[in-house]
Amino acid sequence: MNENITKRNNLLAQKVIKGLESRNMSGYYAGTKEEALKIALELIPKGSSVTMGGAMSAHEIGLVEALKSPDYNFIDRDKASDKRAAMLTAYDADFFLSSANAMTEDGIMINVDGNANRVSAIAQGPKKVIFIVGMNKITKDVDSAMKRARNVAAPINAQRFGLSTPCTATGSCMDCKSPDTICCQILITRYSKHKDRIHVILVNDNLGF
Predict the structure, then answer these.
(1) Can you tell me the mean pLDDT for 172-189?
(2) Band of the pLDDT at 83, cuts 50, 70, 90?
(3) What kind and span of H or E run contains 146?
(4) Residue 183 · residue 161 · CB < 8 Å
(5) Domain that includes residue 67, residue range
(6) Does a structural domain hold residue 157?
(7) How do beta strands 102-104 and 109-113 pair?
(8) Sign of CA dihedral 24, 30, 34, 39
């Protein structure tokens, strides 16, 4: 990471963490992917049940691979014969892993979802939720965060999954009602009702989409 970008990220991360704390959420800052992995594993006791929604960032820091160790009960929906049943276990898991499609400088997170298994678990169910968020996803305010989620994250994910949506062709949101749309549910996480439930690890890197 460029030295000047790192300086900027260091300062911005502290602002985001203060915003998270004011919203009853815990924030952490990792200078590298390796540091992010260390923080995450310190938050997850061995023996915990862990599952996740779509979170490329968790893969990118090596967290998913680490949790596949026999030391943890990692519920891998991608390998489950009954994916619906695997997704439902998320609501009673000790930990749920996620990222954010976008996040504001004062700690508000935006997530867009198709099946809603991810946003519903973020909102309620798992005992704790851990977000892995690259500093590339930080935006000025809710309006710019929403635009990032709809015009950056959603088109890239639609293309990644080979979906037939207008944004796969145009690269930006068309506010479609396509059967393949992944913008079915939009969650704004602005406050955690339960202290110590939501933990956000900010990473000085470009992670996810």
Answers:
(1) 96
(2) confident
(3) helix 142-148
(4) no
(5) 3-143+185-203
(6) no
(7) antiparallel
(8) negative
pLDDT (mean) for 143-157:
96
Average pLDDT over residues 37-62: 96
Predicted confidence at residue 70, as pLDDT, reads 96
Which residue has better confidence, 105 or 4?
Answer: 105
Beta strands in the chain (DSSP E): 26-30, 49-52, 73-74, 95-98, 102-104, 109-113, 128-134, 138-139, 185-189, 198-203
Residue 197 lies inside a defined structural domain of this protein: yes
- Nearest-angstrom CA–CA distance, 129 and 144: 24
Segment 95-120 mean pLDDT: 96
Which residue type, as a one-letter code, is found at position 166?
P
Q: Looking at residue 74, what is its pLDDT? A: 96
Beta pairing class for 109-113 and 73-74: unpaired
Report percent pLDDT > 90 for the chain: 88
- Is 107 within a domain? yes
The stretch 1-20 carries a mean pLDDT of: 94
Residue type (1 letter), 208:
G
Which token pair is 111? 């997530």
- Please state the domain count of the chain: 1
Domain containing residue 105: CATH number: 3.40.50.10420
Distance CA(135)–CA(121), nearest Å, equals: 23
| Chain mean position to CA 148 | 14
Is 119 within a domain? yes
Residue in 134, 147, 144, 143 with CA at minimum distance from that of residue 209: 134
β-pair type (102-104, 49-52): unpaired
